[in-house]
Amino acid sequence: MIAVVVSRADSASEHIGERLLALADWTAHEDGTRPDADGGGTYHRTTVDGTDVELRSFDDLHIHLDDPTPAFSAQPEYIVFVSRHSGDTGPLLTCHFTGNFGDAEYGGADGAFAPACPGVQRALVAGFSEHAPDGYDVAVECTHHGPTDVAVPSLFAELGSDEAEWDDPAGAEAVARAVLDLPGRDVTVAVDDDEDPRHLVGFGGGHYAPRFTRVIEETAWGVGHVASDWQLDELGHPAESRDTLAAAFAASDARFALVDGDHPTLERALSDLGGVDGRGAPGDGVGPDVRVVSETWVREVGDRPLDLVAGLEADLRPVDDGLRFGEPRATGYDVFDLPGGLLAEAQGIDADATRAAVERHAVAFETSENGTRVDGRAALPGAASRDDLVADLAAVLRRKYDEVSRREGAVIARVAAFDPAAAAERGVPEGPKFGRLAAGDDVEVDGETVRATAVRREREERFEL
User: Where is the signal peptide (predicted)?
Assistant: First the structure.
């Protein structure tokens, strides 16, 4: 069951609640066991894609509510607080998790966090993007207010950013539709049930977290709690705030951190949270073993099995040092040296086709020049894959060479090319006629025809494997 919380103290929340009730077939129920102000009285239930959704209204603003979970007729899978957003951002649909990296100025407890549901946030952002009226932006925000004492995962779904939007039927309906879409969307961010979820805790950047919004929209990863730059100031020295940092990871069900900006002291503190620090030495043991990763790492890893990625980074090189991934998802592989000369020649002929050939056969491969040039070693499912890769690289050479063959541990490439010395011997002056002969055209010199075929010489290149 999914729970929806409406606040009567919030005009946008009430407006979204009205649109929710208008968009689905709800059944009204009465709960006389608790006050109307605290979610009792009349409440509504519906079923969407086989999932029950229950909507209850409360008198207080969301940030001042105690845990609303007991108000619902069954323990929900997660809670959606439909709410207003206030700011100078113009029309905006936004969502975020709740908690405080510093003092609890706006509800909740100091240094505490409500359980996050990164997969639900991903699905809600997708719904916002699908239903947003013209002129509305979509974003996620940092974690910046209560409530924090919530028994189940929860998040805020907000309509902003001023009274004009709070009263906008189109904006309220967009939020309502995104919420009602949740039962039909995938709200998980793991490949296999036995894997750690692909959850990140975010640090740094602005309040509206554009980097983390991109990660949610464009990668296979979800983002839990986010501490913007101003909240890092509230946090204080990271080494003295390890319990708060550990609490953010626990509430996000995460062991990966993505840091926006230059925060070396923070990164060291994050790496030291677990039982083993980033250098393999004993850590503080107050939280999980956290790995600080880059956005490049997140994008390149995508939805690949994390154990496979760890093995490939150990056997080849880290993603941030140039490891890239191919199409095969084989868990078993052998590491081979790529044929350097053949690879370089193929890349010089057609870099895109060469990269595609390597990606087609390699589980992963090394690169240089910021990941743009294949170079070094590759993890291949087996020797047969290496042979297939060599065949595809040889095929690229055929765009330049007349004949390409493989024998004696090498690829042999032959091409007949214009020979300037042979042309000069036949009296052809350097200049335009050289160019015509090189292009394969015959020329006239002193009334005699010089055939292009007569001034071509065969050249052979050997690329060792």
Answer: none
Q: Can you give the pTM of this predicted structure?
A: 0.88
User: What pLDDT, in 10s, does the model give residues 137-182?
Assistant: 999 999 999 999 999 999 999 999 999 999 999 999 999 999 999 9
Supply φ then ψ for residue 28, to 5 degrees: -80, 140
Domains of the chain with bracketed CATH? 1-187 (3.40.630.50), 190-303 (3.40.50.10700), 305-400 (no CATH), 414-464 (no CATH)
* Residues in contact with 455: Cβ distance below 8 Å, sequence separation at least 6, in sequence order: 418, 419, 422, 423, 426, 428, 437
Phi, psi of 365 (to 5 degrees): -155, 160
Each residue's pLDDT tens digit, 336-374: 999 999 999 999 999 999 999 999 999 999 999 999 999
| Contact by Cβ (8 Å): 397, 460 | no
Q: Tell me the β-bridge partners of 156.
A: 81, 96
Strand-strand pairing, 51-58 and 137-140? unpaired
